[in-house]
Write a structure and sequence with these properties.
The complex is a heterodimer of chains A (about 375) and B (about 325). Chain A is an all-alpha fold and about 375 residues long. Chain A contains 15 helices and two strands. The longest helix of chain A has about 40 residues, at about 5-40. The two termini of chain A are about 30 Å apart. The chains are: A mainly alpha (about 375), B mainly alpha (about 325). Chain B: It comes from Evansella tamaricis.
Chain lengths: ~375, ~325
């Protein structure tokens, strides 16, 4: 009995710290949905039927569930991309652009070459990662060498990516309408097995790759020396420099890896979901949603996976919410925006929690 | 086609394309000069465009006639200012990361406005407005050779307002006590606080001014260009205004120059087919020019662009 007590105490403190860590994202999600309910009420909809339809649109049918997992896939990659840069103290708003060039590059390799599966698919994925990494390299090197703020550069790079990618598709790869040819089966991520499991949704092998990417991110950041350096630079660049780390190299490296993950996210769409690249009239928003995913997931692998599921589910469920409860699907965009708002303003939640705690201790 | 008639074609279009950018970038100037980054300009333009169109339709229905778009511009200004409070409260009072809060504002703006459009109109876009702001021709001035053709023969009155505003903003920011306080808050908030300036109040005012002007910018774009509102009406103009602000080095006259240049690039990309010298240049170069030039300006290749010193940081009283 005496031996058990300290262990129990340890478990309790662990649970308590976990609870406090979870409080901010969970409360933010709650407030986000709550505000969404108020908006539904004010606009003359019933929030309960609305959210029930949303829930049904994710879990009500195995097809919807497969589509949700499919939607999660690029969100996980873009979330990892944002989080990875964020751990090094960089805000990569350019995930959107890196994802677009990754999409194009992977499809280009898929269409142009005729290779056996074991070479073709990895090569196409690699092309996506390299293109995204290159797109991340530019803001990285500008930040490291010339101290240019990465946020503005990455925003501008997004538009450059959009226009350049459209230019290439329109002039060199156009097959029919607004898109390129379909990639051959040797470069495709699509999976008859996963499709069969989920009543012919577009779920593809990329989902497993995304889970693998979560593990890779965790391993890179927490189990390698380089990862330690990257995080150290994020905490305090001056101290890291003093400790002999090369801050500039780490900044560039972080942006390249981040861009690489983003490019893979694009490859998921190009090689998995669609099987082609298309002329985009506006952004895919997958990259911007990555910011929300990383923020809500507190830049941790498991958090990113869970929040990608939440946001992916919201986006897929929105269709059913419109169909059966007649609530405009944009409601989920509002909910997502408010969740980001509450997470970012966690100062408020922290303040309230601290107040509660000090009150209790005061007694 | 000779050079004069080419310019006759391009310059009015350039001014036309630059006008919303000027309004919005001047708004961004207030906010960033006070040390608050405003990535949310895009979202504020969306809200402005939405309010501009919806209220033009409402005022048309109330029988305001040709005055409706002008009254709607004022309403869009007010709504933009109120909506920017979202960014202000999050980033100033609750000390959220200014960039993240700007991103959230962009999401919220597009979500909320399209949601409301669906509620009001039952589909993804509004009806078209009838009372629009049209191109005007200024008597006497239009007869000036060459320049008359460029600036006075077919120009939107809103463009004149924008030009006029550039000088007002310049005067306010650089020649009034308010402007001095605004800039001191963005450069060194602690020093400003020591001198008795209410730092956070200045920041709130600055962000709301940016919301008001971006609201006008979005409404001007919607009323003069698209004549209705949908999810794709504002597609990057807010970010291009941000680019104009940086390329113009946070100075009203620089903003004017940068916005005109971006407008020029846009109109060239549209008119290039009709100009022999440019017909063979791929459109993509002109499309990406504003963004590439901004990156080059930031990197110092086109004159170093350096923002206010304390930009992006929330001010905590008593901290060093």
């Amino acid at each position: 009995m005496k031996k058990i007590k300290p262990i129990l105490l340890k478990v309790m403190t662990f649970l308590k710290s976990l609870l406090i860590k979870l409080a901010i994202p969970l409360l933010s999600i709650f407030f986000g949905f709550f505000a969404g309910a108020i908006i539904m009420l004010v606009s003359g909809n019933n929030p309960i039927t609305g959210y029930a339809a949303l829930f049904d649109g994710v879990f009500g049918d195995i097809y919807y569930f497969g589509e949700t997992l499919r939607m999660m896939t690029p969100l996980i990659f873009s979330g990892i991309a944002v989080a990875f840069a964020f751990r090094t103290g960089l805000l990569n708003i350019g995930v959107e652009g890196q994802l677009i060039v990754g999409w194009l590059a992977s499809v280009a390799v898929g269409v142009m070459f005729d290779l056996p599966f074991v070479i073709h698919l990895p090569l196409a994925l690699l092309a996506g990662a390299v293109a995204g990494g290159l797109w991340g390299f530019i803001p990285g090197i500008l930040k490291a060498r010339l101290h240019v703020h990465e946020v503005i550069v990455t925003i501008m790079m997004n538009y450059v990516a959009l226009h350049v990618s459209n230019h290439f598709i329109r002039n060199y790869m156009l097959a029919s309408g607004q898109r390129t040819e379909f990639i051959p089966a040797t470069a495709s991520l699509s999976s008859d097995f996963l499709r069969g499991l989920t009543d012919f949704s577009r779920l593809h092998w990329g989902f497993l790759l995304a889970i693998f990417a979560c593990v890779v991110m965790w391993f890179l950041l927490w189990k390698t020396r380089k990862g330690y350096e990257l995080r150290a630079v994020g905490y305090n660049p001056n101290a890291s420099s003093y400790a002999g780390m090369n801050v500039k190299t780490n900044i560039v490296l972080s942006m390249v890896v981040s861009g690489g993950f983003a490019g893979l996210g694009g490859a998921m769409e190009g090689l998995g979901t669609y099987g082609y690249a298309q002329i985009l009239s506006s952004f895919t928003n997958l990259g911007f949603d990555g910011i929300a995913v990383a923020l809500l997931g507190a830049s941790t692998s498991i958090g990113i996976f869970l929040s990608a599921f939440l946001f992916g589910g919201l986006k897929i469920g929105a269709a059913n919410m419109q169909a059966s409860a007649n609530v405009a699907p944009e409601l989920v965009e509002i909910v997502i925006a408010l969740i980001i708002f509450f997470v970012a303003s966690s100062y408020l939640i922290r303040w309230v929690l601290n107040r509660l705690q000090s009150n209790r201790e005061g007694k | 086609m000779d050079i004069i008639s080419t310019l006759n074609l391009i310059i009015p279009t350039a001014i036309f394309a630059a006008t919303p950018l000027i309004f919005t970038a001047l708004g961004g100037l207030f906010s960033e000069r006070a040390g608050v980054v405003n990535i949310g300009l895009e979202g504020l333009m969306v809200i402005g465009a939405f309010s501009g169109i919806v209220f033009t339709l409402i005022f048309e229905g109330l029988g305001f006639g040709a005055a409706s778009p002008w009254v709607a511009l004022l309403v869009a200004m007010l709504i933009g200012a109120v909506f920017s409070l979202f960014h202000a409260v999050a980033s100033i009072t609750l000390r959220a990361d200014q960039i993240v809060s700007g991103v959230a504002l962009n999401f919220l703006a597009i979500g909320l406005s399209v949601f409301l459009v669906r509620e009001f109109f039952g589909r993804g876009q509004t009806d078209y407005i009838n009372a629009r702001i049209f191109r005007e021709s200024v008597p006497v001035l239009r007869d000036i050779p060459i320049i008359g053709n460029w600036f006075f023969s077919s120009i939107y009155p809103t463009s004149f307002v924008a030009f006029f505003l550039v000088f007002i903003v310049w005067y306010v920011v650089f020649k009034t006590p308010f402007g001095l306080r605004l800039r001191s808050v963005g450069e060194h908030p602690m020093a400003a606080d020591t001198m008795g300036i209410k730092v956070n109040r200045m920041k709130y005012i600055a962000v709301m001014l940016s919301g008001a002007l971006a609201g006008i910018g979005g409404a001007v774009y919607a009323i003069t260009t698209s004549a209705n509102f949908g999810g794709g009406t504002i597609a990057g103009q807010g970010f291009m205004s941000l680019a104009a602000l940086i390329f113009g080095k946070w100075h009203p006259l620089g903003v004017l120059g940068a916005a005109l240049f971006f407008g020029f690039a846009q109109s060239l990309s549209i008119a290039a087919q009709q100009i022999p010298a440019l017909a063979n240049v791929p459109q993509v170069y002109l499309l990406i020019a504003p963004y590439v030039l901004t990156i080059l300006a930031l990197a110092g290749f086109v004159g170093k662009a350096e923002g206010p010193k304390a930009i992006g940081k929330s001010y905590e009283k008593g901290s060093r």
